[in-house]
Amino acid sequence: MSSSRHALINVLMLLALLLVVALVSATRVRAQFPGQQPKVEGPWMDKTLSPDKRADLVISQMTLDEKISLLHGLGSRMFESPGSQPPTRSLGGAGYIPGIPRLGIPDLQMADAAVGVRHGSVFGRYSTALPSGASEASSWDLKVAHEYGALIGQELRDQGFNMSLGGGIDLIREPRNGRIFEYKGEDPILAGKLVGEEMKAEQEQGVIGDIKHYALNDQENGRSFVNVKIDKRAMRESDLLAFEIGVKNSGAGAVMCSYNLVNGDYACENSYLLHDVLKKDFGFQGFVLSDWGATHSTVKAAMAGLDLEMPGDDFFGDALQKAVESGEVPTSRLDDMVHRILRSEFAVGLFDEQLGRRVPDIFKGFAVARSVAEQGSVLLKNTHGQLPLSASRLRSITVIGSHADVGVLSGGGSAQVDPPGGNAVPPPPPAAGAPRTDDRNPVWFPSSPLKAIRAKATNAKVEYNAGIDPVAAANLARGSDIAIVFVNQPASEGRDEPSLSLPDNQDALVSAVAAANPHTIVVLETGGPVTMPWVDSVSAVLEAWYPGIKGAEAIASILFGDVNPSGKLPMTFPRSEADLPHPQLADQPAPGPDDLKPMSPGEPFQTNTRKFDIDDNEGPKVGYKWYDAEGKEPLFPFGYGLSYASFSYSHIEVKLGQSPAVTFTVKNTSVRAGAEIAEAYVELPQAAGEPFKRLVAWDKVQLAPGEARTVTLALDPHYLSIFDADKDEWELVPGDYKVLVGGSSRETPLSMTFSQ
Ligand code: BGC
């Protein structure tokens, strides 16, 4: 070989080597920790392009195997069985989908985050244990919802997660539902706006927001078997309206379809719900993921609109690949599924920003938790100005019940957050062989009401009685200036409450203490409504819900008047279960081993042989609408809540035209500053066939003593419309509309009628 030929070969080899090095470094995964995404070059990395365009550019580079790999997860089953480890790179959240490093597609790291990021203790991470969703909803305040969501989003990012599984919004049709504490009440507009704001705030932190459980998963017992029967108009004007508002207001990247069936089809393979309503009518551009184990088919589910099977690959792994290869699922639909996921990732910046871990701002979390609990607690009764308490005058206080010496209650299941310091009332050790204690056992956050009360009542002797024995508790209470009885109702995902009565003889406890002390104050720590047979015998009642890690301080601040309560009920408290649309919990097979069984790798999720129907024949009459239409008197109505201030309403006016609105004046008629949530309801013309009013707008008005303010609330035509199922569209019924304004659904001193 001539020397020049030799030199040429050397040069060519060198060039080839350089090319390989260049290619490798272009796609090389930089130093990483789990969850950190690789940086690659590619036209889709151009941030000036739209998320849709960028998604299409990536898809054009993907193989079939790669596409399929994004459409199912490797989730909690991987680490919930004894001794198993999460897959490499997974952060151990409830859901994990490995990314594709060569294309820069990040790992999708999902964590449950309804009231804070879940499962901290399993991996030694910290997150703020926030008050329940019902507490947030009782603030009726979009600023509170924003703070709540922003904190969750930030703490997800702090831990390296890039997708939230929070955002529960199922309406309270069944007040014994074990998950009410996660949700935002019974009204679709209130719930939709709050969850919309919360998800918007989470997405602003650079995580994909998820709204769940779509749809009508309104009870837990038999949730995988229950077939909800409801007509289109009723669902569009109730539960689906909440999702519509939530999705549209937030731009959430994901919606989780639910376990139950709706009109005969599982929610995760229900083309009316997923395709016709969510994707077509609501214009939802993100992806639909199944609840954990709620996928039941491949072709039917994919064609109905399910995009992602979670947490495993029983239907959207090899089976989906085969269905694509055989043409049963067209490539265009496959690409649409992938597009929706990638689009949501681009939209919140997952391709553009490295996930970095941070130390969570614990102090900020405490402040947000306390502020939500202060704004979300609802004062239900306050006879003769029993509250606020006077720290200087009180000499003796008896605190009773609910482990108030050590903690406040929280809700169980996938919304359980591990608090710093652990469960203040440690449960019995897990059964032999069980990976850990049942998630549904009550967890008490270490925030002691007794200590918080002692810190305020510095001149008083404050004694505690556990409340197990009503007689002993009453005897102690008899001798003190006041008695504060804490009562609780533990609730959890995976089961409904057997009744609306407080468990464990607590009604007898309150009655005994109230008989012994005329100044008895009851503090409720409940997931949702409870009945109160003793209500007439106590002087004050405060609903604190599950008040979060700073719950004790928030409760004490309200009891002693440092905070003037302003929360209002986002759900009706019935007098008795006989008044419910379903006085008996819907008929069903007894909860069986399949209802929420421990999961093990490779095992298919719930088998579904025990279907049963619920006729949602209350239709759109959810919550207060039922009580209005049926002429039933609630114990405490929707929208109700007291303040230490008092307010008057006057001067109503309705303005029609381009932007219809109602204007009125609210005045603080007391000597205390306070906030009033002013509510506007509308009764539709008779021809609409809806014999109840709807909440259409509200505002929280902060008023100094004696101050009056003019409030203007927009009357959104959508919220005044009915859904015509035949025409498949919303319409305004011509006729007379009556606007009612006031401080609760049952107290509307102002009204005015206008014609449309
Ligand atoms: C719950 C979901 C949750 C999921 C993952 C399911 O059992 O219904 O709300 O996000 O588990 O933990």
Distance between the termini: 95 Å
> How large is the count of helical segments?
21
Ligands: beta-D-glucopyranose
How much is the average pLDDT?
91
Strand proportion: 15-25%
Helix content: 25-40%
Would you report the number of β strands? 27
What does the oligomeric state look like here? single chain
Q: What is the gyration radius calculated from CA atoms?
A: 28 Å
**Strand arrangement in the largest pleated sheet:** 10-17-16-15-11-14
Largest sheet properties: 6 strands, mixed
Which structural class do you get from the secondary structure elements? alpha/beta
Low-confidence stretches: 18-32, 595-609
Shape: globular
Describe this structure in words.
With 756 residues, the chain is of the alpha/beta class. It has 21 helices and 27 strands. It has a six-stranded mixed β-sheet with strand order 10-17-16-15-11-14, with helices on both faces. It has a four-stranded mixed β-sheet with strand order 8-7-5-18, with no helix packed on it. Strands 22-21-26-27 form a four-stranded antiparallel β-sheet, with no helix packed on it. Strand 26 and strand 27 form a beta hairpin. Helix 8 (188-204) packs parallel to helix 10 (239-250). The longest helix is centred in the first third of the chain and has 25 residues, at 3-27. The chain is globular. Mean pLDDT is 91; it is low at 18-32 and 595-609. The structure holds beta-D-glucopyranose. Beta-D-glucopyranose binds next to loops.
